[in-house]
Amino acid sequence: MFDSGLGGLTVLAELVRALPNERFIYFGDTARVPYGAKSARIVQRYSDEVSRFLLGHDIKLLVIACNTATAHAESLLRKELSIPVLGVIQPGVDALLAGTQNRRVGVLATRSTIKSGAYERRILEREPSARVYNKACALFVPLVEEGWIDKRVTGLVIQEYLSELVREEVDTVVLGCTHYPLLKKSIREQFPDLQLIDSSEETARATSRLLEESGIRSQTPAGGVRIFLTDITDQMNHLETLLAGLAVSSVEEVQL
Amino acid sequence: MFDSGLGGLTVLAELVRALPNERFIYFGDTARVPYGAKSARIVQRYSDEVSRFLLGHDIKLLVIACNTATAHAESLLRKELSIPVLGVIQPGVDALLAGTQNRRVGVLATRSTIKSGAYERRILEREPSARVYNKACALFVPLVEEGWIDKRVTGLVIQEYLSELVREEVDTVVLGCTHYPLLKKSIREQFPDLQLIDSSEETARATSRLLEESGIRSQTPAGGVRIFLTDITDQMNHLETLLAGLAVSSVEEVQL
User: Fold this and answer.
1) Which CATH number does A89-198 carry?
2) Out of A138, A151, A234, whose CB is closest to B146?
3) pLDDT tens digits, residue range B71-84?
């Protein structure tokens, strides 16, 4: 699996929990993070480079644990690679549509993911009568990275982004960015009636199904996580809690 | 001049105003922005690549319009290049020490700039008796990029970051990130007695002096701005106001 940075570790955590028999390689392109504000073309080039690296490590399935890379590069990688490829968007879309009662649904994501239209397009393909409310939440990632998970400021920012959706009677929203699950509790406190879809959880479920269907699910206990990063810095404290209990065997720096 | 992205346009705006006889090349490494959370080594490599590109365009002076790049790569570039090199840190430090009455000074910057110690070291070199209060303000850049310049949330974030410094009787702070000048008005509203040093303004003044001293200041009216970016996206709206009136003759995408 790969992500532009470390946000995808929320997906890794869910995968490790769901699939104790598998071994994981997590690639974080931390030297070029974030992909969110970059053009489709650049994101495709970076995703392609990262996938080639991972193929060199003999992976049997690729999870794109990054919404921006999924939006811009999923179909390209699916065409290019001979192994199954799974992005984080479709599992979230499926759960969103399964969860909504009134088909008024919200998409919370970075500016770039929203702009790509990837969520809206897939939602309307499956459910043309849905009303989709998009909201780019540019401050959520820095709030999480600052560790301001339950400050007054965070509540205000959540209000700022979500009030309009709730006024429009949206009943279910998908957290379309891997950092956002860390704000789930705060969002629930502000809007207890809103149903939240966590794409990390849904992607883990979908990966499990895909391994099964492709007949490549490991039957013997294995486990283990290798992490490759394009830049190792000491500013990764806020992710330590995510890494705790993941049995990471190595963290290595590589240059693409 | 170069910056990791577009924040350095605040410096460009001041330079164009101060030096109407010069021509400017602005290089924004937007495909790899931001440098702020990356390691010193990676920032040095990127700064080196960008400088080589600019030298190929026959520049006579290099302004590093990025605090992170100045912190990590200024001395390296000064050693390597045969033209004068000026970073954004020293001009801010000089103005900070000229401005303070009680030598209790604050540095507002990104996490990486603070961590580099570049401001604190230079302040104490010039004024060993100064008390330096560092504050990493990770949410300021995304607030500016969101265009939330004078929202209630912004006031709260400013309070969150600055209250402690003001309690410690800091009388002058330097805005040690090129995006921060856009929050000057909001900071003044929250803390009217705090003296703010704008490194973009100070860098323009220092550049003017350095051109003069090196005897390479243009005497005939010229002007004109060329912009090179490593990624052109359509998410640059918030900077259009900065670009207005700058007589930009071209914006080109290049790959390093």
Assistant:
1) 3.40.50.1860
2) A138
3) 999 999 999 999 99
Summary mean pLDDT of chain B: 92
CATH 3.40.50.1860 boundaries in chain B: 2-87+201-253, 89-198
The yes/no answer on whether domain B2-87+201-253 falls in CATH 3.40.50.1860 is: yes
Active site residue B66: yes
A164-209: per-residue pLDDT in tens?
Answer: 999 999 999 999 999 899 999 999 999 999 999 999 999 999 999 9
Give the pLDDT of residue A238.
Answer: 56
Identify from A157, A158, A179, A238 which residue to disrupt to test chain B contact, counting B C-beta atoms within 10 A and taking the largest count.
Answer: A157
**How many of the other CB atoms lie within 10 Å of CB of B222?**
12
ipTM, two decimals, is 0.76
Q: Hey, are the CB atoms on A33 and B37 less than 8 Å from each other?
A: yes
Q: Which one is catalytic: B9, B66, B73, B183?
A: B66
Q: Using a CB–CB cutoff of 8 Å, tell me whether B31 touches chain A.
A: yes
